[in-house]
Amino acid sequence: MKFRTASALICAVTVAACDTPSPEFRNVPAQVVTVGQSVFEVRRKGTTVELLRTNAEYAPTFASIIPRAAQAVQMATGCTARPQSWTGEQTLMQVEVDCPDT
User: Fold this and answer.
1) Whole-angstrom Cα distance, residue 74 to residue 100?
2) Residue 14 above 50 pLDDT?
3) What is the C-alpha separation between 53 and 20, in angstroms, rounded?
4) Residue 22 and residue 46: Cα distance in Å, rounded?
5) For residues 64, 67, 71 and 72, what is the CA-based torsion angle, rounded to 10 degrees?
6) Cα 27 from chain centroid (whole Å)
7) Superkingdom of this entry's organism (predicted)?
8) Average pLDDT of 67-82?
9) What is the pLDDT at residue 13?
10) d(CA 89, CA 66)
């Protein structure tokens, strides 16, 4: 019985962590953008944008997500992602942007 309780608790904590921005972006409001099969929460702070992918996809690579993420950046912020500035992984990523308002 203790094993089931521990397993349930671990699963709950893991699932909750999947929908959390980084500490730097925690209080920044998100805009939800869907591009193809990917759903992103997009947050902008100055010239940095953080994207949190919230949908389930089978085994995407970081490289396969970047084109959709770049489109989400454009749709949510009007900014253009700098191609060589992507960091992170398939679920939580950041990119430097060039924006008309800065």
Assistant:
1) 11
2) no
3) 10
4) 15
5) 30
6) 15
7) Bacteria
8) 97
9) 39
10) 10
pLDDT reported for residue 66? 96
What pLDDT sits at residue 12? Answer: 39
pTM: 0.79
Three-state SS annotation for 42-91: EEEECCEEEEEECCCCCCCCHHHHHHHHHHHHHHHHCCEECHHHCEECCC
pLDDT in tens, 40-49: 999 999 999 9
Q: How far apart are CA 35 and CA 69, in angstroms?
A: 8
- Burial call 18-28: b when 16+ CB within 10 Å, e when fewer: eeebeeebeee
Q: Name the DSSP letter for residue 28.
A: S
Phi first, then psi: give them for residue 6, nearest 5 degrees: -65, -40
Q: Is the pLDDT score of 59 beyond 70?
A: yes
Q: Is 100 helix (H, G, I), strand (E, B) or coil?
A: coil
